[in-house]
């Protein structure tokens, strides 16, 4: 069973770079160890979210893809 | 300072003229390393846009005072970064449409005149290394190995005031989506495909086989088919006007085709050997080879075209100068990774699936990997 997300971000319909811009902002208001759930429709976000989480020291716990919506769970590092 | 949009057309012209250009590529590092804009005059810096959200101050020292061309996957991030650079007093441009547009851009170049009247044009797809062709004579045109950007060819033909009467694919492509069938549908032209490659296709076509002859205009210019398997089982080369050899994905300028795209590396290696070391040896060395791909920018001539005499390739191309054993090893082992989505691309070219425009773009993203060197 996965832990409950502490925050949710809806970035659906936004084009690059906005999903990452918004994710970064939302992460700023969270505490270390907390989990953010992000939904995006920009398919380019898959590679970028993975790379961004890594470079920022966060943990991309998992992602799913359903009907064109990508959902990410990232734990703040 | 305001930022400027630079078109993929302008980038392509600079690249062919080998003009210096500094590219700040803001895609993530994996994407950059997999596939980027390459050329003799180009310098790169890769910093992902998400590392620049708080500003570009940290990279300013790594940038030249000249104009910086910012490139990303689609465009959005490059505009953001170009604006940040501009705020710091730097001259910055963003490439319109990003790498998606770069992947789709074709540069038409004249290769030469046909002896029996007419002209031959090569369409260079710099972003993917794909080459396609249009030969024109007596008011008619044939298109060979067309990309899916079909309006480039139909517009080009319209400007020359010629009708496209024949469309040929030298083989069933696995690296890019063919525009052949779509051009034929739009223009009423005949669509030719080697039967051995087309056994599973879901549409009607004209069978291209050894000895097939296609005539243009009043009939003086002819295109003769030469069966040349090895990249695929049906791969067929074309000799046009006894002057040019369309070698498809069998022979390139600095490399040769790979036989494994359909998972048949072992059995096709000997076919490829026979084609390159026997069938091609029987052809006139004066023929100018026009391949359907290039792998590196060094394969381009001064004018941007990709073309070289068959006789010169016999001397210079490493893949044409190997003992049998070394040849088989090279073409069946240590092969580069297969092109992105190659199975889906094959199925699309067979008419078995019909992805929408955006899905087709996604399928073709990335470099081309048809050759072995």
Automatic annotation (TrEMBL), chain B:
<dbReference type="GO" id="GO:0050313">
    <property type="term" value="F:sulfur dioxygenase activity"/>
</dbReference>
<dbReference type="InterPro" id="IPR001763">
    <property type="entry name" value="Rhodanese-like_dom"/>
</dbReference>
<dbReference type="InterPro" id="IPR001279">
    <property type="entry name" value="Metallo-B-lactamas"/>
</dbReference>
<keyword id="KW-0378">Hydrolase</keyword>
<protein>
    <submittedName>
        <fullName>MBL fold metallo-hydrolase</fullName>
    </submittedName>
</protein>
<comment type="function">
    <text>Counteracts the endogenous Pycsar antiviral defense system. Phosphodiesterase that enables metal-dependent hydrolysis of host cyclic nucleotide Pycsar defense signals such as cCMP and cUMP.</text>
</comment>
<dbReference type="GO" id="GO:0006749">
    <property type="term" value="P:glutathione metabolic process"/>
</dbReference>
<dbReference type="GO" id="GO:0016787">
    <property type="term" value="F:hydrolase activity"/>
</dbReference>
<dbReference type="InterPro" id="IPR036873">
    <property type="entry name" value="Rhodanese-like_dom_sf"/>
</dbReference>
<feature type="domain" description="Rhodanese">
    <location>
        <begin position="17"/>
        <end position="111"/>
    </location>
</feature>
<dbReference type="InterPro" id="IPR051682">
    <property type="entry name" value="Mito_Persulfide_Diox"/>
</dbReference>
<dbReference type="InterPro" id="IPR044528">
    <property type="entry name" value="POD-like_MBL-fold"/>
</dbReference>
<dbReference type="InterPro" id="IPR036866">
    <property type="entry name" value="RibonucZ/Hydroxyglut_hydro"/>
</dbReference>
<dbReference type="Pfam" id="PF00753">
    <property type="entry name" value="Lactamase_B"/>
</dbReference>
<dbReference type="GO" id="GO:0070813">
    <property type="term" value="P:hydrogen sulfide metabolic process"/>
</dbReference>
<dbReference type="Pfam" id="PF00581">
    <property type="entry name" value="Rhodanese"/>
</dbReference>
């Amino acid at each position: 069973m996965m832990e409950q997300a502490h925050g949710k971000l809806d970035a659906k319909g936004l084009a690059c770079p906005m999903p990452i811009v918004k994710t970064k902002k939302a992460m700023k208001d969270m505490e270390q160890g907390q989990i953010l759930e992000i939904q995006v429709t920009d398919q380019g976000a898959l590679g970028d979210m993975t790379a961004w989480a890594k470079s920022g020291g966060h943990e991309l716990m998992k992602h799913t893809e359903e009907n064109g919506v990508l959902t990410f769970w990232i734990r703040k590092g | 300072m305001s930022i400027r949009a630079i078109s993929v057309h302008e980038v392509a012209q600079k690249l062919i003229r080998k003009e210096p250009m500094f590219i700040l590529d803001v895609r993530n590092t994996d994407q950059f390393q997999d596939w980027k804009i390459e050329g003799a005059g180009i310098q790169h810096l890769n910093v992902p846009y998400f590392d620049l959200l708080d500003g570009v101050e940290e990279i300013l020292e790594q940038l030249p005072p000249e104009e910086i061309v910012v490139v990303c996957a689609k465009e959005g991030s490059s505009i953001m970064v170009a604006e940040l650079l501009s705020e710091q007093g730097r001259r910055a441009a963003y490439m319109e449409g990003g790498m998606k547009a770069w992947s789709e851009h074709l540069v038409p170049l004249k290769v030469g005149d046909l002896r029996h009247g007419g002209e031959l044009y090569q369409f260079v797809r710099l972003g993917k290394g794909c080459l396609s062709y249009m030969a024109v004579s007596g008011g008619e045109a044939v298109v060979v190995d067309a990309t899916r950007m079909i309006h480039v060819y139909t517009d080009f033909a319209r400007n020359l005031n010629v009708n496209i009467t024949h469309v040929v694919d030298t083989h069933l492509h696995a690296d890019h989506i063919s525009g052949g069938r779509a051009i034929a549908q739009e223009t009423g032209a005949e669509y030719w495909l080697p039967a051995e490659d087309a056994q599973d296709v879901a549409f009607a076509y004209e069978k291209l086989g050894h000895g097939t002859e296609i005539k243009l205009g009043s009939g003086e210019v002819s295109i003769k088919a030469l069966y040349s398997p090895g990249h695929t089982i049906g791969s067929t080369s074309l000799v046009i006007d006894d002057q040019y050899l369309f070698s498809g994905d069998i022979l390139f300028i600095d490399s040769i085709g790979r036989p494994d795209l359909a998972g048949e590396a072992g059995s096709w290696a000997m076919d490829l050997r026979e084609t390159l070391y026997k069938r091609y040896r029987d052809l006139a060395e004066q023929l100018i080879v026009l391949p359907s791909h290039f792998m590196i920018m060094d394969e381009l001539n001064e004018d941007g075209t990709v073309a070289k005499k068959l006789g010169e390739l016999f001397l210079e191309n490493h893949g044409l100068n190997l003992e049998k054993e070394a040849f088989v090893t090279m073409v069946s082992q240590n092969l580069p990774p297969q092109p992105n989505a190659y199975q889906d691309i094959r199925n699309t070219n067979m008419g078995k699936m019909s992805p929408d425009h955006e899905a087709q773009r996604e399928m073709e993203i990335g470099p081309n990997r048809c050759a072995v060197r």
